[in-house]
Inverse folding.
């Protein structure tokens, strides 16, 4: 009987090269891999929505979907900017603050949520009727990202 995969194992399957924050020196690398994987999925979603937007505009230039698609793309770019502006992998913080196993588990779970939501957004990005769903996923992703930023700091500084 196959056992359920842990969040760490799921991330390792989803992101090639991901090692799971196991070694102090690899935290920044794993953080970079998670953020880049998420950004790549979101950028691909933007490309899909842009193609979809041009198709819809050519058939019906006054379609109500067009404005919503533009807004979704704008929100995706904002989230990508938020991810890009994050401090990388607890840079400088790790030297002053030792991350414990429980906190690593929380970081891994958060990373899994981030990559999973980005994958859901990507999967929906070719459907004009899915823009409302994508917007709610973007809001959920924004919350996960903001929570993730806090995870690299000691509990008393959160």
């Amino acid at each position: 009987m196959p056992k359920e995969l842990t969040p760490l194992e799921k991330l390792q399957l989803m992101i090639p090269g991901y090692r799971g924050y196991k070694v102090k020196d690899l935290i920044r690398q794993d953080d970079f891999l998670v953020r880049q994987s998420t950004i790549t999925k979101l950028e691909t979603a933007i490309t899909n929505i842009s193609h979809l937007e041009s198709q819809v505009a050519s058939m019906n230039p006054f379609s109500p979907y067009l404005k919503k698609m533009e807004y979704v793309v704008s929100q995706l770019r904002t989230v990508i900017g938020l991810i890009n502006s994050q401090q990388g992998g607890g840079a400088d913080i790790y030297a002053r603050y030792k991350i414990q196993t429980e906190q690593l588990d929380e970081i891994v779970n958060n990373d899994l949520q981030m990559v999973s939501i980005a994958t859901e957004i990507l999967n929906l990005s070719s459907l004009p009727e899915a823009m409302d769903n994508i917007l709610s996923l973007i809001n959920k992703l924004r919350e996960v990202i903001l929570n993730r930023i806090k995870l690299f700091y000691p509990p008393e500084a959160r």
About this structure: Residues 22-157 form one domain. The two ends are 41 Å apart (CA to CA). The longest helix spans residues 27-59.
